[in-house]
Amino acid sequence: MRWPKGLDGLCYGGDYNPEQWPEEVWREDVALMREAGVNLVSVGVFSWARLEPVEGSYDFGWLDRVLDLLHEGGVRVDLATPTASPPPWFSLAHPDALTVTADGARLSHGSRDTYCVSAPAYREASARIARVLAERYRDHPVLAMWHVHNEYGTWCHCDHVAAAFRTWLRGRHGTLEALNDAWTTSFWSQYYSAWEQIMPPRATQYLPNPAQVLDFRRFLSDEMLGHFREQKAILRELTPDVPVTTNFVFGDWVPVDQWKWAQEVDLVAIDHYPSENPPEETAFAADLARGWAGGRPWLLMEQAVVTYTGPRMVAKRPGEITRLSLSHVARGSRGAMFFQWRASRGGAELWHGGMVPHAGPDSRIFREIRDLGNLLPALAEACRDPVEAPAAILWDTEAGWALQSPGFPSTGIGYLEAVRQAHRVLYRHGVTADFVHPSADLSGYELVIVPSLYLISEDAADNLRRYADGGHGTLVVSFLSGIADEHARIRVGGYPGALRGVLGVRVEEFLPIGEPVTLDTGDTASLWTERVHLAGAEALARYPDGTPAVTRHGRAVYVSTRLSDDAYARLLGLGSPAPVELVRRGEWLFAINHGGGERKIPGNLLLPPGGYAVAKVPRPG
Amino acid sequence: MRWPKGLDGLCYGGDYNPEQWPEEVWREDVALMREAGVNLVSVGVFSWARLEPVEGSYDFGWLDRVLDLLHEGGVRVDLATPTASPPPWFSLAHPDALTVTADGARLSHGSRDTYCVSAPAYREASARIARVLAERYRDHPVLAMWHVHNEYGTWCHCDHVAAAFRTWLRGRHGTLEALNDAWTTSFWSQYYSAWEQIMPPRATQYLPNPAQVLDFRRFLSDEMLGHFREQKAILRELTPDVPVTTNFVFGDWVPVDQWKWAQEVDLVAIDHYPSENPPEETAFAADLARGWAGGRPWLLMEQAVVTYTGPRMVAKRPGEITRLSLSHVARGSRGAMFFQWRASRGGAELWHGGMVPHAGPDSRIFREIRDLGNLLPALAEACRDPVEAPAAILWDTEAGWALQSPGFPSTGIGYLEAVRQAHRVLYRHGVTADFVHPSADLSGYELVIVPSLYLISEDAADNLRRYADGGHGTLVVSFLSGIADEHARIRVGGYPGALRGVLGVRVEEFLPIGEPVTLDTGDTASLWTERVHLAGAEALARYPDGTPAVTRHGRAVYVSTRLSDDAYARLLGLGSPAPVELVRRGEWLFAINHGGGERKIPGNLLLPPGGYAVAKVPRPG
Amino acid sequence: MRWPKGLDGLCYGGDYNPEQWPEEVWREDVALMREAGVNLVSVGVFSWARLEPVEGSYDFGWLDRVLDLLHEGGVRVDLATPTASPPPWFSLAHPDALTVTADGARLSHGSRDTYCVSAPAYREASARIARVLAERYRDHPVLAMWHVHNEYGTWCHCDHVAAAFRTWLRGRHGTLEALNDAWTTSFWSQYYSAWEQIMPPRATQYLPNPAQVLDFRRFLSDEMLGHFREQKAILRELTPDVPVTTNFVFGDWVPVDQWKWAQEVDLVAIDHYPSENPPEETAFAADLARGWAGGRPWLLMEQAVVTYTGPRMVAKRPGEITRLSLSHVARGSRGAMFFQWRASRGGAELWHGGMVPHAGPDSRIFREIRDLGNLLPALAEACRDPVEAPAAILWDTEAGWALQSPGFPSTGIGYLEAVRQAHRVLYRHGVTADFVHPSADLSGYELVIVPSLYLISEDAADNLRRYADGGHGTLVVSFLSGIADEHARIRVGGYPGALRGVLGVRVEEFLPIGEPVTLDTGDTASLWTERVHLAGAEALARYPDGTPAVTRHGRAVYVSTRLSDDAYARLLGLGSPAPVELVRRGEWLFAINHGGGERKIPGNLLLPPGGYAVAKVPRPG
Prior knowledge:
Chains A, B, C: Its EC number is 3.2.1.23. Chain A is α/β, with parallel strands linked by helices. Chain A is 31% helix and 19% strand.
């Protein structure tokens, strides 16, 4: 992790798109930024067409003036390479660099992200604009950080991608025989006798090959990472001291393996847009970001001043902007950034909200933005010690991808839902959790939860066995874990495959259900049940037919069904719910009352509705 | 407005497609038409392939015989140019003239409307068949009117369209700089440095540019209007005395700006197919048609003998065909026409119904058709005076298009729903409303309603200000009005933008809601709320938090939420609901009882269930 | 019907895909097959890419070893031609042989069934691999039967298909004039003046031509049948004594007219995967298969060990595998086969289940498979006499296709639902039904049901008239029967068209409904009502307005609405429901208790819950 030089304390600001406004607005912007305590803005994320309006012809004048103004105003810049949206002239000159959908439609420009990451022309143009930008601003004192691209995640299925996919597959599998074996191509006559026969998973007649789809997501992640690394190398060469990052985005569709990417960025940064339950989603996203960052600081690069639910944009309640930002900071973010500084008056996201809303600075939103900006500097001290987490939840992006295949025994399963439940139950009981990779050192945790880790390597399975056998703490594994190897091939002989030994069970059949059932413990179980045989384990709870539902083998617990949240909490022995959100960092306790009532918190403090405290509170006991 | 010479009184008839039937049926058709009082039929709407079965080779024999037969039978003809459906030979010879979808699929012939209005070959072929047709029948006495094309509204995204769109954009914006500014292309790197970079809004990676989409709909409207005008010029040249029209169709997807088109047609004609509530939808459509026609007569060109709801075709109740036709006539239609004369026995719309159903003339439907035909001539006198409307509702097709953009703060908003509510509330209270353009002279109305007029020019805003300030009557503006300029760019500084002054309010935030709330008046408000600051206005109703919900500033009322229909009626001071549908034209009162009970109407008349009256009734008071 | 030589009694086994497993597994497979009583397996269904990994280069070694092992183990082989899934090298060499969707997207390989049946290259390659396979194994004693292709049903819309469609249309219609008339191309200007103008029903602007769509399904069926016949001719030439079959699959989308195909296969075979109500769906499918087979034996080629409902795979209850297999056998299947022998560990259908599940032979599933295998040989004697069925239900694949057109007066109608209701009501009352073609000799049946036979020829209508007038039994016709001729053109003058005479009614209007209504009999009617005039018939039940709903004319009953199941049963005079599933074959009675209670059956036997009996039981009375 690298941190921008000269940028002490916490970052505060957002995406700043001055090119959408006349220059007279820029001066008001900088004055308002000063008023709001803004110290960092992301500039140029979508500016390619304004920086290079014609191929090879650059217009840096406006950006020069913007950066100088910001510098004068004391605001540092997270300068973006604008490669997420190539200009119209580029697409017109290189139609082969436009995205192609799975069913062969070549997309048009006119939105954003209209590129193919494998297209040679796009790669060249990306490197060129990154170099030109770095050469121009390498010595500008306003430059704090590089923001490469934006929210990597664009799928393409064109012939460039096909060629790159084949190259990647050669690297991964070595030989065609190995690939045929890994992909089980004997099924449905898919055996490949030459590399050029292999295609991306394009639209096809019926179900696709799940191993091919999984490898394609791995490939896309690596392919985009290659694009990132090319830019990073240029930026490193020209500005060796400036950290380089990109902003991760959440979503089932995102083909980015953050574990791998986190090794390449100088600072993990995320964009986070909660929808249903902002406090819980915020804690989840922040803990995940901290996990990707290996426990080191990271940065909330984008959030919004409103909440985007599916059917509507809900205004954040008074203080909510601050509370959610505080939750991010408590969980390791080195600041709170927004999309975007000033709400747009045109373009596709003109309703997206901004720190300065359409109504202008004379508005509740801007006043809250200003208040938050005044609060943040005071929090720096409380952020020095690391976040303390007694529990770990295993997270594996690849396993989640594998579980998105069509054809599973129930359409109700989902990796994210399984992981979220584990996190939610801990969160509601005040237990902070780290997200860790399956191969991580687990010995420091009292509790390790493995939610539906469908795909697991033998090494990772050994890691879990060592944890449980080593007496470090309790291992809790839920259904659909351990089933498949890295090529999504099922381990036969009895589920849960690689984890049968450590769990002391053998599962004979999956029995997904529609209506919930009641276990002999009185707990409710839904979605999924199994026919479990004890093979060393004892039953902690049983299905109505008397067969085991939850088992324990030494310190390894197996949950063969989806428990209700309450039952899950009881199984984990979590006691009563926490009064408010609580995060401890050394002597400091962060307490945030997202709810509507007055709450008593550790240290005998009273938090009013919507209140928060960051205080030195001795550990209980 | 021009009216067919020699066609006095009201028109009665429908689409007549004799080419689907053997000649022996034609004679029965004409006999039945006479029996039913039919005096006008639309012929040849989809006859191109039968008129020109091979390129340049015409077969007019059958049409000659049909027209002669109709003439002998005393039925006049609204003769169609058949350009809505080019023949298969045309598509095969000119595949570039087939429609291309937004995602690049070129559609096949085999349905109807399979053409690109911008394809040169299609334009040429359209002009040629129109000329040939006019040359052949210019002197036929049966010819009453020209029916150009059918239900204009076909979208295309092909390269011909792209080229035409660019030409149109040059005309509209003049320079690329103006276009870039109007479209806010600085957002997402969409800046265009050459005209050829601009594309129609084809399938793209993510959200499209709303200004581009809006201009594309304007372009499509103008492009199709160009096609209409080309044919009109030919027909005018050859038959200077014959009126030329086309039939407007309703639907969110229709890219036709009827205000512009109404200037070009000799007679506004509409096709109307209600679904949920036929009487209310009929009044709405008829008032809209009268608005487009500038208050002059217009023509209901198509209706059906059944009601098409989504899940099924519901038979019209006894008398319903007459009552709905009467409603159209009362509101300004110079007749009642149907699709179609005789229900088809094959083809895609064989279940569409007809004046002569599959069962033949010995049927309830044909008997009702005959009764209606016998009634209509008696109504001509009552139709001499104009429809009287004390209220006006602003209608702007472009504003409605703009409100269809994705990304609004609530997915529940809709222009049509907002306009329909205003009309529905007036209708149910017996208040006839005109639909008028935002720039229309409003001084004659007691009440002007502006429902969700999202996009408004400064001139139109001035027009509203003059109306309210002039003391002519009450101006009622509902939420999401006045927000954007003609390029769909938001007016910043506070909503409702251009209408802040006249309304005396400043809105700081939009607060869309899920569950309804109750105002301090006891009224129910749903979907949408706002944070309203009074700036001269007073509050008429307040939200639960005490902030203003409905305000009044002089005679200008602002409604920042969706009121229930009842609350809306109370706000407008409408009194009790009308007993039946009532329309006044001078001394004549049209009264239609669509419901199931006996109703007392002005003039101390009693209308039985399903009954109607057209009578001279003195004005009350 | 031909039966494999040397394969006495009932077949037992499933699809066997040894190429997915290492050779050491093969020996375990054969040992387990012997243990389970397996005597027939389908081999090679998807093996093309492993048999011909490079064009013209064959690898039969593995298959030689597999067949030898099976032969040694006493298991016979239903050897598949692998043409359902061409290898990747084929698609790469012949991209024109890949499927094209209706909107013009060319599908990729990477699944199964990625071919165009009209592509010359595919036809040639199919014939070649079939010949090579037959030449190699013609004398292998393990060869019992040929399994051509798999589940025919792939649609394609490419230019090869277009050309073949035109050729087929010439054969069917003779002249363009006849085609234009049959298709009612006068509607919407679709008149064809040259054959090359005719296209498959590709994506088009609006509704397609229903006659074109219907002919396209007929064409696809014939085109695939041509592919089948080419292979059959090769196999017959090389192995004149080996029966040739293919496996029919169920589904609204399947373009296979089984009546025609049944004439070409040596043995009717079906794949059956019930979803909602397995016992009823099994009886339905089995009776249909027996119908296609003309009452002769047929074969259940595929079933699963689990039930695939939409949202999940439900484990079959204890004994359910046996009960459903027994139902198939009772209703004429010469065995019970499964997909597949051993559950796959990779590939798209790795969760599809198998006779040997992932858990291996130490599992409930395999134990039930073994039990079933031990039971089947004892049933051969009971299967000698034909299945006895007093009732017939008319089934016409083409009529079902015609009823799938868009635009019917109700979206709730469906051919399959209408037929299923008739069958379900009989099934629940213990009445076995045959499915028969509309032209079949009906004189032997006490009851003939005609559910929604929309499309009917005059000959078939005469056949029904002869049945009813001949006093053979009761004819029950339900709504939407007799309406259209073979070109889907409506018979005008009054519904139900061709059946007006025999039914003694004239229907004037269709009146589809949303909410159910109650007839004067107290019965409930839903979905559809009609305005029925008696023309010789008497009313058996009336709508609330007093018009006839159900009528009788001699022995011909007309049902103009959808009756509830109970009302349907009362109308048919069916008495009380049967206690269990009952099928009689001569002296033998098959009784299967699918339910949860003890049931008394004919012969004074008691069946425990889930029990079954195959016993000589004298006929009642």
